[in-house]
Amino acid sequence: MKQRTVFAKATLAVALAIFSSTAAMGQQESAASNGKTPLVTITKNGRIEFNGGSENNWLKDVASRIQLHGYAQGGYTFDHSNGNTTNTFNIKRVLFWADARITERWSFLFMHDFSSVVQEFYTDYRITKNKALTVRLGQFKNGLSLENPLSPTSMEAIDVYSEAVTFLTGCGSDPLLGVQYGRDLGLSLFGETNNGKLRYELDVMNGQGINKKDGNNFKDIITRIEYRPLKGLNLVASGQIGRGHAVAPSIYNPTIQVGENYKRHRWTAGADYKSKAFNVHGEVLEGWDGNAKSWGAYVTGAVPLGIPKLELVASYDFFNFNTDLGMDQHKAIGGLQYWFFGKCRFQVQYVYKSAYVADGVFVHGADHGIQCQMQVRFN
Length: 379
What we know:
Helix 1 crosses helix 2 (57-63). The protein is 12% helix and 53% strand. The protein folds into 2 domains: 1-64, no CATH class; 65-378, Beta Barrel (Porin). The chain has a 16-stranded antiparallel β-barrel. It has a two-stranded antiparallel ribbon with strand order 1-2. A hairpin with a 7-residue loop joins strand 16 and strand 17 (328-341). The chain is mostly beta strands and 379 residues long. The radius of gyration is 23 Å and the shape is globular.
């Protein structure tokens, strides 16, 4: 009963914080000018704080359990391929999420993309006293690949993930699965041992994507293991055994029909290294959709240029969407990013692809693009 009461109060506090954040900031400015303490403030790390007398003690307790986060990414894209030139301003992501710690072991998260749909909603319960075992239930990012669980705000490329990760994890380029943002509905067991050096994850998921019931009676099994042998170095391996349910025809796999259930297996192996001198990560990935095989590899990194907060970004990415049909693509990225405040940055990048899709046909030919992006984040 006590936990239900705390949860109800936490929900109320989240709603109050969302709808009053602007007013709270205005109140804070007004209160500062007349020497009064504001009722509500939001700290730099996104935590809600209620001020006042003893009548607000329960609000203070609830607010201490809640953190608010958010970021937006948008910019400009120029592209030239197949004799055509296009350019557009765009808003890629406007995400807001709230973490609520109901008890010391039990928490809840809700994430919404205002430029898209509800992205995540799940609850975590830590079974052990330490971090060795936690269970998660709801909608969340699957553990396949090194990149997919990472936030777009930490990725070097404006395109975010590699072509292989985007295709194999369900981020959007596989028509058979549709645009699922690398997320799914299911259950996860995860934890870490050896002072954080070893981390594991086991997911049982629908395999159909976000905000959807399963299209068949098969569940996808995803495993992931991470090992940190040295400071800054992380080795990651993952795999998936599953059955897909096709939602649309695909030029990459024309033998699979809409509504058909098909084999959907994957494996990946990669490494990530971070230091003051440079950051770099790379991975090899392979997948099977029915009888079609795809595979790829990439390496992406950033190097400080000696000017504070300015970095050079570069990436090479290869992916063959269907080895039997010769749908190979090489992709190269080069550019700069400037971190002007905290996790806020401006990016400009040149992107080259050796193949692209035009009018429903896979074409081997040059695709040139220039991308600019502004990222603003608070947490």
